[in-house]
TrEMBL record:
InterPro entries: Gliding_Motility_GTPase, Gpn, P-loop_NTPase
One Pfam family recorded for the sequence: ATP_bind_1
Name of the protein in question: ATP-binding protein
GO terms, molecular function: ATP binding; GTP binding; hydrolase activity
Keywords annotated in UniProt: ATP-binding, GTP-binding, Hydrolase, Nucleotide-binding
UniProt entry tagged with the keyword GTP-binding: yes
Family that this chain belongs to: Belongs to the GPN-loop GTPase family.
């Protein structure tokens, strides 16, 4: 059975769709999940230790006091009783071993990119390409970050033409909802339908 997001459906039973949010350390994944979630989000944040700072701390991230050590979780309901379950992944390479478990059953993914550190999202892009998981790139437009258009981001990340790129502000619910709609629509195009 297939459905579309915005056309009224005779069968309005809830449909659960799992979406992963990945990207580099400090890209805004926890913020995105918390901004979108209609429930109190689950966060597994921990203070950064001296050890963690030494191995995780990319240049410019010294002021980041906490980090996700397992996952973030939230839920948002879209039209037609479509419920998105959002799973934010940890960004540090040392926690990537958890991604396989988190990705199981995901219909699509968002790779959150920070233009100050675009190479940090290559790992997530490679991961979803290898798994065949439909994904969209959401460029989190930080106040002090350089602004690049979609074409420049696509070239810099070597993305296929069909991969959606959306400029967003992870602090704005309207902006995040547009990203979520884009990834669900992209996953529908790639997968054909959700059951």
């Amino acid at each position: 059975m297939s459905f579309t997001l915005f056309e009224p459906q005779a069968d309005a039973r809830p449909r659960a769709i799992k979406i992963l949010i990945a990207g580099g350390f400090g890209a805004g994944k926890t913020t995105l999940v918390g901004t979108a979630s209609e429930i109190r989000p689950l966060r597994t944040e921990s203070g950064r230790s001296a050890y963690g700072r030494a191995i995780d701390g990319p240049i410019g991230m010294d002021s980041k006091e906490s980090t996700t050590v397992a996952m973030d979780f939230g839920r948002v309901t879209l039209p037609n009783n479509v419920m998105l379950y959002l799973y934010g992944t940890p960004g540090q390479r040392r926690f990537w071993f958890m991604w396989d478990g988190l990705a199981r059953g995901a219909a699509g993914a968002i790779v959150l990119a920070d233009t100050r550190r675009l190479p940090d999202c290559f790992g997530a892009i490679d991961y979803f390409e290898q798994r065949g998981t439909p994904f969209a790139v959401a460029v989190n437009c930080f106040d002090d970050a350089p602004r690049y258009g979609e074409a420049r981001v696509r070239v810099a990340l070597d993305l296929d033409p069909g991969v959606p790129i959306i400029m967003c502000d992870a602090r704005s619910r309207d902006s995040v909802i547009q990203v979520l709609i884009a990834v669900v629509e992209h996953a529908l195009r790639v997968n054909g339908s959700f059951v």
